[in-house]
Amino acid sequence: MSEQHQVGEAAGPETTEPIDGTGSDSTGAPVVAPTEGDIAATYCATLVDEWSALGLTDAVVCPGSRSTPMALALALDDRIRVHVHHDERSGSFMALGLGLSSGRPAALLCTSGTAAAQFHAAVVEAHQAFVPLLVITADRPTELHGVGAPQTIDQRDLYGTAVRWYCGPGAPAPGGAPWWRDLARDAFVRTLGEHPGPVHLNLAFREPLIGTAGELPPEREPLPTPDEGERFPTGAQWGLPDEELGRMADALSGCSGVIIAGVRAARTAADARSVHLLADHLGWPVLADAASGCRLEVRGSITAFDGLLRHGPFAAANQPEVIIRIGGLLTSKALNAWVAAAPAITIGIDPFGAVPDPDRVLGQKIQADVATVCDQLRAVIRTGARPEWREGWVQAERRAVDAIDSVLNHHVEATEPAVAVDLFEMLSSDGTLVLSSSMPVRDAEWYAPPRAGVRVLSNRGANGIDGVTSTAVGASLGGGPTALLIGDVAFLHDTNGLLGLMGRGVNLVIVVIDNDGGGIFSFLPAHDELPARRFEQLFGTPHGVDLLTLASAHGIPAERVATRTGVQAAIAGALTRGGPRVIVVDTDREANRLVHSEIHLAIGDALDELV
Ligand SMILES: Cc1ncc(C[n+]2csc(CCOP(=O)(O)OP(=O)(O)O)c2C)c(N)n1
Ligand SMILES: [Mg+2]
Predict the structure, then answer these.
(1) What is the pLDDT of residue 259?
(2) Rounded distance from Cα 500 to ligand 1 centre (Å)
(3) Which of 47, 232, 367, 570 has the most CB atoms lying inside 10 A of its own CB?
(4) Average pLDDT value over all residues in the chain
(5) What pLDDT digit, counting tens, does each position of 491-539 carry?
(6) CA angle 52, 53, 58 (to 5 degrees)
(7) Could you give the residue ranges of the DSSP H alpha helices within 305-437?
(8) For residues 544 and 552, what is the distance between their CA atoms, to the nearest angstrom?
(9) What pTM was estimated for this model as a whole?
(10) Ligand 1 atom having least distance to the Cα of 488
(11) What pLDDT is recorded for position 225?
């Protein structure tokens, strides 16, 4: 439940002020009492000062009047980079992207009214994906509620259960000053708690909204800051207690098993190393999502698991006795069905205690630090699987990867899987790749090569196709080359993500797969069961929008390509030139369905030869 917190109005004034707002000091000189604007300016400067001290570096500010005191305070603090965004929905996803890539909350500010409601989708994503986010909505003071004041809605608990904390402290009054820094700390620290996520401060301001900040309340003892290089909140820092470790070691010892690494399974390179060291020790393969941090170029790292497990004989012949799942859910239905049907002990490990389990297959959920548990298990387990167990997976992986390559190499035209593969291969190893929901995330999961160092991000908390461009823009604000792989519908959903992009000083290559609609639906039963016209109307949803013109309207250089070499040249050029660029890749939904079938068949044939 959200808490209410009164630090402003509830606290009486510290000093008595004359009614007319004037008085005199001890020397008899006239003293002008602070206006509401001055109080708000001091209050906001205090919150911002405290947040800066705690490590806030970025704020996304959406224009509006009621938020003036906070907008000015953020802009006046040299330690904070202010990113202005016209559109609250895109702006909120930009703040989400900042938090997703840095592991630190960005501040997100808007005026009162429906502007605040526009943040909701990003707040939900931040909630479900454990992304820290400091949401600040401006509001009218209490006396303007319920009387039809313009641009006034009920903003209390606006985001419901999606926030870690809600606080509506009322309009500031000088008497509350001793608690202003506490309010700032409470909000900031809660974004980074055991379960990082969004916090909502609903700050009321009275007119006048512009004033001069006075002396700030004294600073507090600094809080410990996270270790240098710790990019993400790490959740649980502990491992398994001895007794549980013993039980788990017994269960794993001598068994043939797999580790399935989903999104953000490894939050650091050390996590990934520990996962692979344990897998090596046990003689198990690691089935690693492209966004897991565990897809490394090492023996036993399996990338083509979707294709392998679509092949019935392989899936049946390679039943594990134990499955360890780390990180988010994978999109591969073949993999998830194989896990659900496996007569295996299935254990989930997650530092936030949040391993997704929609099929209810987990026999045990462990909230612990991934690297610590892996290291502990490696130290106590003596016997691994038979060597043939992992060898079977390694051989099959090699065959499957060759099969994928050879199918893709036969296509001169741009194919969607090849675009994913090429983008992964071409991005420099200090780069960040953002994947949109729908086919981009799947093509990357199923076909992307291992790329150590490349950071892969996507909105997998709620799997929306909204705010994806803005998420990538937010991620790119952290510096370093960033690429986005996105479908045309998702791109259209967030064209306002392009607002102001040329002025944001980022290196962002946006690769739009333009199949004129929702390509993913061609893989669903509706594609075969509905008349073609009905399918196109409700699922295919062609739009015919010229995406190049759209990019040009924002002054963003853009080009359209239709061949694989064209795609490669465009990506190479964009990465070399830097800055924002849109590359629109022409594909066809029906052809995409066929190329995926071609790949599955080729993998099947390659595996048949193995037996
Ligand atoms: C906000 C939101 N609306 C709708 C959906 C449902 N949805 C999932 S994929 C998709 C189509 C996406 O099309 P596109 O981005 O072009 O990718 P493609 O399927 O062509 O790969 C839709 C509408 C969603 N996930 N999120
Ligand atoms: Mg599409």
Answers:
(1) 98
(2) 25
(3) 47
(4) 92
(5) 999 999 999 999 999 999 999 999 999 999 999 999 999 999 999 999 9
(6) 25
(7) 305-310, 312-317, 333-341, 370-380, 387-409, 416-426
(8) 16
(9) 0.94
(10) 16
(11) 59
Closest atom of ligand 1 to 491 CA is 15
Quick one: pLDDT band at residue 98, thresholds 50, 70, 90?
Answer: very high
Share of the chain above pLDDT 90, in %: 87
Q: CA-CA distance, 456 to 290, in Å (whole number)?
A: 7
Quick one: pLDDT at residue 607? 96
Q: What integer pLDDT is reported at residue 413 of this predicted model?
A: 98
Ligand 1 center to 542 CA (angstroms): 12
Q: Is 487 in the pocket of ligand 1 (CB under 6 A)?
A: yes
Cα–ligand 2 centroid distance for 518 (angstroms)? 4
Q: Among all ligands shown, which has an atom nearest to the Cα of 444?
A: 1
Q: How far is the CA of 465 from the centre of ligand 2 (A)?
A: 11
Distance CA 334, CA 314 (A): 12
The answer to whether the CB of 541 is under 6 A from ligand 1 is no
Return d(Cα 245, Cα 235) in angstroms, integer: 19
What is the Cα–Cα distance from 416 to 134, expressed in whole angstroms? 36
- Does the pLDDT of residue 331 top 50, yes or no? yes
Q: Which ligand number lies closest to the CA of residue 489?
A: 1
Question: Which single residue is written with the structure tokens 């491992």?
Answer: 239
Band the pLDDT of 5: cuts 50, 70, 90: very low
Mutate to test the pocket of ligand 1, among 520, 527, 596 (most ligand atoms within 8 A of CB): 520
Q: Look up residue 499 and give its two tokens.
A: 């607002």
561 beta partners: 585
Position 404 confidence tier, pLDDT thresholds 50, 70, 90: very high
- Characterize the bridge pairing of strands 133-139 and 198-204: parallel
Instruction: Give the nearest ligand 1 atom to 436 CA.
Output: 15
220 vs 189: CA distance, rounded Å: 14
The DSSP code sequence of 7-43 is SSTTSPPSS---TTSEEE-TTS-EEEPPPHHHHHHHH
Which residue CA neighbors atom 25 of ligand 1 most closely? Answer: 464
Cβ–ligand 1 contact at 463 (below 6 Å): yes
